[in-house]
């Protein structure tokens, strides 16, 4: 059973981890996606890599991050396994392909129109790219929301890299698993509703900001 | 967008602060799910954490995985229940000090109708034999847990090798998931008593064999590790053996389930794990 104070704490942590990982993934993924979409000449290999990344199983990412950060792994000295940072790393890996590919397809669909428009108005290339980003803001927002949504609702990698430690790495998804395992089905359902509500609120916020 | 970015940066810094704060005086403990999911460990930890102003981080996994984590150096101590696996772990020179903390019992659970007549079996071995001879569906954990190790040893004692037969299913899941599967499929399974009581409402399984059979003894041990320099683990080991903690262990669950789930044994192993000591 979870007290409401602890539930709030878990919810805040969940949002925090998802927000940080989405932010980092967006900072890398949006420029990359714009670049790939704008040039329009993405090789098949790159496309395949990115699209495979979209369906990257989270448990595999979790396992790889686990092996990387474990005390007997290559980055073991950092002591990062079973910390929120480890969870953030795994979520970045999961969110990045989503953000890159959605940005890329969004930009690719608009890039020709914008290029023609900028050319016909006789504006320089620099203006063209900022116009392009503005034109593609909805696609970019959708990409960020997708990244955040994937991150907040993911459980496999979160459990493997975070360990579901109370007051430390427990997030909403792992506590649903735990409550179910402990036989507290009502609590599990309640936590699930909080998760759903949070996803709704954050997505709504991002969408509204993106529409402005 | 700026507001959004500012918000995210704020969250990042909060997380960083939270990280920096939570480093001193903490103990990382890998434990079998039964002691954690039943709530026993939390009850013990409340006392310990206030007394030593320490923070204990619990990672609840199967015994096999807990020992794996210990071997890799990812935890400071383990709370497990598979004497055979513990012996191998000690033989590999990985354990610092091993202490037997408590005992409980394994039980055979199954459908209320009990087609294999396990309830009237005089021994656990006979119960397993009856399940096999009637080819009643049996759900095995199929993971590397202490309960799975126990189940395998019972089949071996009974001279049976059910692996691969059509009535023998390996769930590859934790105890409560396995109990749920057994309930849905009206099948038999081996369970620890604590997890059975915790999930009994949803699983609708009957406790069929719970007799006092030495084969079904379920012994929980605590081990400090050679590859961990954290001295809190030794303090926690001593704390577990204190008469007051032992009493907490023995009384745990009486109120909620009307029976005690564990019996403190204060370091005196009932199933021998280490020769001397």
List its traits.
heterodimer, A: 212 residues, 79% helix, B: 277 residues, alpha/beta, eight-stranded mixed β-sheet, 10 strands
Uncertain ranges of chain A: none
Which radius of gyration of chain B do the C-alpha atoms yield?
A: 21 Å
Backbone structural class of chain A: mainly alpha
Multimeric organization: heterodimer
- Low-pLDDT parts of chain B are none
Order of helices and strands of chain B: HEHHEHEHEHEHEHEHEEHHHE
Q: State the shape of chain B.
A: globular
Query: What is the chain-wise order of helices and strands of chain A?
Result: HHHHHHHHH
Specify the number of helices of chain B: 12
Structure description:
The complex is a heterodimer of chains A (212) and B (277). Chain A has 212 residues and is mainly alpha-helical. Chain A is built from nine helices and no strands. Chain A has helices at 4-39, 44-54, 58-69, 84-121, 125-135, 137-152, 156-162, 172-181, 185-211. In chain A, helix 1 (4-39) crosses helix 6 (137-152) and helix 4 runs antiparallel to helix 6. The mean pLDDT of chain A is 89. Chain B is α/β, with parallel strands linked by helices. The termini of chain B are far apart. The model of chain B has no long low-confidence stretch (mean pLDDT 89).
Describe the structure concisely for a colleague.
Chain A has 212 residues and is mainly α. Chain A contains nine helices and no strands.
Write the topology of this structure.
The complex is a heterodimer of chains A (212) and B (277).
Chain A: H1 4-39, H2 44-54, H3 58-69, H4 84-121, H5 125-135, H6 137-152, H7 156-162, H8 172-181, H9 185-211
Chain B: H1 2-21, E1 26-32, H2 33-37, H3 40-51, E2 55-61, H4 63-71, E3 77-80, H5 83-91, E4 95-110, H6 124-133, E5 138-140, H7 146-157, E6 168-170, H8 175-185, E7 189-192, H9 193-203, E8 206-209, E9 217-225, H10 232-241, H11 243-251, H12 254-257, E10 263-264
Helix pairs in contact in B: 8-9
């Amino acid at each position: 059973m979870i007290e409401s104070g602890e539930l709030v704490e878990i919810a805040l942590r969940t949002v925090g981890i998802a927000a940080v990982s989405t932010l980092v993934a967006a900072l890398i993924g949006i420029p990359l996606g714009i670049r790939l979409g704008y040039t329009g000449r993405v090789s098949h290999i790159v496309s395949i890599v990115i699209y495979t990344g979209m369906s990257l199983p989270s448990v595999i990412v979790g396992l790889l991050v686990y092996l990387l950060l474990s005390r007997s792994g290559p980055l073991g000295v950092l002591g990062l396994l079973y910390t929120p940072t480890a969870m953030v790393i795994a979520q970045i890996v999961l969110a990045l392909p989503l953000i890159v590919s959605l940005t890329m397809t969004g930009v690719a669909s608009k890039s020709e129109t914008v290029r023609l428009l900028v050319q016909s108005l006789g504006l320089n290339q620099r203006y063209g790219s900022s116009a392009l980003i503005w034109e593609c803001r909805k696609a970019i927002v959708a990409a960020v929301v997708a990244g955040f949504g994937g991150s907040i609702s993911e459980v496999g990698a979160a459990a493997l890299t975070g360990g579901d430690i109370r007051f430390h790495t427990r997030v909403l998804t792992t506590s649903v698993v735990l409550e179910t395992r402990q036989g507290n089905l009502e609590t599990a359902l309640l936590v699930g509703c909080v998760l759903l509500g949070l996803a709704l609120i954050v997505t709504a916020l991002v969408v509204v900001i993106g529409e402005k | 967008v700026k507001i959004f970015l500012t918000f995210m940066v704020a969250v990042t810094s909060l997380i960083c602060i939270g990280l920096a704060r939570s480093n001193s005086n903490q103990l990382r403990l890998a434990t079998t799910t039964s002691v954690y999911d039943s709530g026993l460990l939390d009850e013990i930890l409340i006392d310990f954490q206030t007394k030593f102003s320490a923070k204990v981080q619990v990672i609840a996994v199967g015994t096999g995985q807990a020992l794996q984590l210990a071997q890799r150096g990812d935890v400071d101590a383990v709370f497990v229940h598979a004497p055979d696996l513990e012996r191998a772990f000690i033989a590999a020179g990985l354990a610092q000090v091993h202490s037997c903390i408590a005992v409980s019992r394994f039980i055979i659970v199954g459908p209320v109708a009990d087609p294999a007549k396990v309830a009237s079996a005089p021994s656990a071995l006979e119960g397993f034999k009856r399940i096999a001879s009637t080819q009643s569906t049996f759900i095995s954990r199929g993971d590397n847990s202490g309960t799975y190790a126990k189940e395998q040893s019972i089949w071996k004692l009974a001279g049976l090798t059910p692996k691969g037969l059509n009535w023998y299913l390996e769930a590859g899941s934790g105890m409560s998931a396995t109990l749920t599967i057994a309930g849905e499929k009206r099948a038999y399974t081996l369970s620890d008593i604590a997890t059975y009581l915790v999930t009994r409402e949803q699983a609708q399984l009957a406790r069929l064999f719970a007799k006092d059979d030495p084969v079904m003894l379920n012994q929980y041990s605590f081990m400090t590790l050679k590859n961990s320099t954290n001295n809190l683990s030794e303090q926690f080991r001593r704390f577990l053996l204190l008469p007051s903690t032992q009493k907490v262990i023995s009384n745990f669950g009486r109120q909620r389930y009307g029976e005690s789930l564990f019996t403190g044994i204060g370091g005196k192993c009932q199933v021998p794990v280490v020769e001397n000591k």
